[in-house]
Amino acid sequence: MVAAGLLAFATALIKLAGSDIPVSQILFLRQAGMLILLLPAIAGDFPNVLKTSRPKLQLTRIVIALIALYCGFTAVVNMPLADATALAFAKSFFVTIFAILILKESVGPYRWAAVAIGFFGVAIMLQPGTEGFSIYGVVAVLGAASAGIVMVIIRLLSQTESSNSILGFQVFGVGSAMLIPAMIQWVPPTPGQWVLLFSIGFVSFFAQKANIYAFKHGEASLLASLDYVRLLYATLLGYVMFEQLPQHSTWIGAGIIIVAAIFTVWREARKKQVLARAPDGRDFNNG
Question: Which of 62, 198, 199, 276 has its CA 20 to 30 A from that of 118?
Fold first, then answer.
């Protein structure tokens, strides 16, 4: 519950910073801040942390992770907080699809039905063909799809690579990729904005630490289900910080998405699979 609250708060800080600071700059400084906080762990395994037997797969993961984070941040900045958070939950359905295509996992009719129902909830939220449609909703779904691919790639990498190696490549890779775009679009932050930007990395770091601690000691399928309480946090923060409340279509669509996603988690637990309930890809839920 603490991890979910911190992730929602980090997302709110990203939205707050995005009113004046480009997304590329926010993402670069966020990665830089997390790198500073991660240095003790990375340094303890250096230079092994940058060694890999699967460089192409690591590079692919960095590129897709960059897309996932950039799209997620862009959606958060330009959409109501609760809407962007709810659409990010569609990641679970993309994980199922890409696990079939990439890992050749078998999925039964129940999980296929959950995927179909989940995407129906996404369609309700996107409202295609109506005045309520926003291109940033599509960006949010693209971010969720990319995050789903990342989780499947992490599953592949974990078979041969250490967790430090996977983490190190992601932190260095995404941060390095955003350096030039951030410099081109750089907006000199005020002292208050520097505090805000550092806080994004700080809160994101401890959200991940809390999440890892929870999964280390708790039951994975239950914890993955509790993650959806982030929508309540996001709704409260969206109202308090931005005076935004979700529309009726958001509540209906989000409810359908969450029920279908929790069912997917439950079926994975029954089948002794871990993709949608694993903590490894939690960093791609915008925060």
Answer: 62
